[in-house]
């Protein structure tokens, strides 16, 4: 055996055998690789942007989708590379078309010729129109149900008050509303400011595809407590003091503003002021408190002035008066010294 292994011919035969084995092994591997490379593969590349070529300074184009789906079919390696790298583009050239409606085919470039390419959609209907820019007033809006029951929306304003809208002529002509909607939490009571996006809508409240400058405005929302102005009336209480006649009571104000919940304030028809007549003793101006009706939160004046016109009765003076007495006739009194009466004859017993 050792002699055989030492023979150069044996070694040459073994080397030739190993070389043949290696050759056929590599050939099989290469054939397998080529077969794999030639295996057909289908890949779908989604949301590929569409580039549009036209005079965008003076024209507006509608109908072109922003993205399309691209399906490629071909050798696996090439198809996978196209999907992963995405070094191709989809476009449509409208530079040679006039204003109006057209049916155009989408095109692609930089895709290997070994791939079959299908675009979805492959053809689109486009409308080429004149570009128009117009200024519109912004109308702020808010859901009134966000405001607390005892308050109301006093007013809203946008800054800036107008925006410039650019779009196709037909779109600009169909604009009915330019809105800036404000949001918030339930139970709003205080004024506030908020940035709001501007929306452009047609008469059916469909959003229009236009360019808005600026896209946002600052909206000021004024919220105030609900109130209502009501006439003031005098409600007399008690009685005037003895000897006091109240001729007239005149209010210095004819109305007051009452604050509170709308459901309560709207039912009221007046603000009565209770006047204690016993406190009015002379002609002058008095102040009386305004009593809040039940459910009201405050009133524009807590006190009102009332001018009183009063007449006082004069007190009767009690003086004891003595009736004058007529002079009495003098009685004649017998006085021998002053008169000469007739002599009195006395019988004397002898």
Automatic annotation (TrEMBL):
<feature type="compositionally biased region" description="Basic and acidic residues">
    <location>
        <begin position="316"/>
        <end position="332"/>
    </location>
</feature>
<feature type="region of interest" description="Disordered">
    <location>
        <begin position="316"/>
        <end position="350"/>
    </location>
</feature>
<dbReference type="InterPro" id="IPR053154">
    <property type="entry name" value="c-di-AMP_regulator"/>
</dbReference>
<protein>
    <submittedName>
        <fullName>YbbR family protein</fullName>
    </submittedName>
</protein>
<dbReference type="InterPro" id="IPR012505">
    <property type="entry name" value="YbbR"/>
</dbReference>
<dbReference type="Pfam" id="PF07949">
    <property type="entry name" value="YbbR"/>
</dbReference>
């Amino acid at each position: 055996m050792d002699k055989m292994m030492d023979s150069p011919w044996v070694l040459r035969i073994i080397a030739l055998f190993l070389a043949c084995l290696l050759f056929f092994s590599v050939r099989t591997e290469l054939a397998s690789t080529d077969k794999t490379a030639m295996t057909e593969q289908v890949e779908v590349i989604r949301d590929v942007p569409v580039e549009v070529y036209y005079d965008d300074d003076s024209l507006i184009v509608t109908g072109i989708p922003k993205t399309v789906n691209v399906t490629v079919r071909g050798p696996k390696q090439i198809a996978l590379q196209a999907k992963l790298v995405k070094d191709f583009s989809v476009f449509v050239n409208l530079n040679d078309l006039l204003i109006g409606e057209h049916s155009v085919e989408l095109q692609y470039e930089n895709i290997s010729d070994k791939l079959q390419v299908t675009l979805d959609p492959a053809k689109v209907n486009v409308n080429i129109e004149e570009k128009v820019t117009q200024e519109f007033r912004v109308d702020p809006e808010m859901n009134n149900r966000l405001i607390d029951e005892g308050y109301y929306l006093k007013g809203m304003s946008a800054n800036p008050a107008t925006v410039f809208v650019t779009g196709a002529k037909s779109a600009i002509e169909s604009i009915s509303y330019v809105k800036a909607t404000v949001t918030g939490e339930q139970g709003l009571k205080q004024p506030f400011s908020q940035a709001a996006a501007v929306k452009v809508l047609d008469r059916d409240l469909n959003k229009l595809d236009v360019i808005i400058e600026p896209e946002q405005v600052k909206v000021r929302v004024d919220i105030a407590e609900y109130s209502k102005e009501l006439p003031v009336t005098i409600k007399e209480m008690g009685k005037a003091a003895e000897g006091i006649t109240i001729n007239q009571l005149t209010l210095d104000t004819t109305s007051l503003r009452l604050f509170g919940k709308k459901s309560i304030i709207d039912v009221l028809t007046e603000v009565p002021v209770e006047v204690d007549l016993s406190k009015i003793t002379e002609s002058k101006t008095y102040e009386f408190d305004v009593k809040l009706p039940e459910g009201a939160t405050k009133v524009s004046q807590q006190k009102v002035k009332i001018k009183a016109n009063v007449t006082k009765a004069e007190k009767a003076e009690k003086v004891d008066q003595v009736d004058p007495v007529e002079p009495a006739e003098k009685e004649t009194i017998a006085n021998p010294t002053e008169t000469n009466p007739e002599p009195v004859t006395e019988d004397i017993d002898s």
